[in-house]
């Protein structure tokens, strides 16, 4: 049996109407995507598919376009630097518990380089920090930060009363 015979047989199976609309649409997705990028409207592309025997409702057509694009983006992203991503994900830091207000070093992940140390500012409990630094905080540090930000942004009137009473008794 020749390879061209095998390819022809599998092409016939792919055209089989027993397959779902989504699977048959995946077969022609590249041509549809190229035509849409060339300026053909989605409605025109869907109408042409209907003329060729692949009748898909417009909302389903739009949903399939979005879904297949998303799947292909995931495949492209995961195929590139998978080993670097897993190394960065499994890298851990040894961050010690420290009293509030002291500076702490937290690893700062970079996509294509080794982890660099990031020194937290003195006001790290209430300051705006980059997302990668926030991910590097320990659970205790996250808890301290959440409590400090709550008190800073939503002060309790009872805290003010307690401070005034303690000042008057001295």
Overview features:
single chain; 170 residues; mainly alpha
Question: Would you write up a description of this structure?
Answer:
This protein is mainly alpha-helical and 170 residues long. It folds into 2 domains: 3-80; 94-169, no CATH class. The protein is built from 8 helices and 2 strands, in the order H-H-H-H-H-E-E-H-H-H. The chain has helices at residues 3-14, 21-37, 42-51, 58-80, 82-90, 131-136, 139-153, 157-169; strands spanning 105-108, 116-119. The protein has a two-stranded antiparallel sheet with strand order 1-2. Strand 1 (105-108) and strand 2 (116-119) form a beta hairpin. 6% of the residues are buried.
Q: How would you write the strand order of the largest sheet?
A: 1-2
User: What is the number of independent domains?
Assistant: 2
Q: Poorly predicted ranges (pLDDT <50, ≥5 residues)? A: 82-98, 108-115
Count of DSSP H/I helices:
8
The beta-strand count equals: 2
The SSE string, one letter per element, is HHHHHEEHHH
Mean pLDDT: 75
Which term fits the overall shape? elongated
């Amino acid at each position: 049996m020749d390879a061209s015979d095998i390819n022809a047989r599998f092409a016939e199976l792919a055209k089989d109407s027993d397959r779902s609309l989504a699977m048959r649409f995946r077969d022609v997705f590249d041509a549809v995507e190229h035509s849409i990028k060339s300026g053909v409207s989605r409605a025109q592309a869907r109408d042409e598919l209907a003329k060729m025997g692949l009748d898909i409702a417009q909302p389903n057509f739009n949903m399939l376009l979005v879904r297949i694009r998303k799947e292909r983006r995931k495949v492209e992203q995961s195929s590139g630097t998978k080993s670097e991503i897993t190394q960065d994900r499994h890298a851990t830091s040894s961050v010690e518990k420290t009293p509030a207000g002291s500076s702490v070093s937290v690893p700062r992940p970079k996509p294509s380089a080794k982890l660099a140390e990031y020194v937290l500012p003195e006001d790290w409990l209430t300051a705006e920090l980059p997302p990668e630094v926030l991910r590097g905080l320990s659970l205790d540090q996250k808890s301290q930060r959440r409590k400090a930000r709550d008190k800073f942004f939503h002060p309790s009137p009872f805290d003010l009363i307690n401070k005034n009473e303690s000042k008057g008794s001295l």
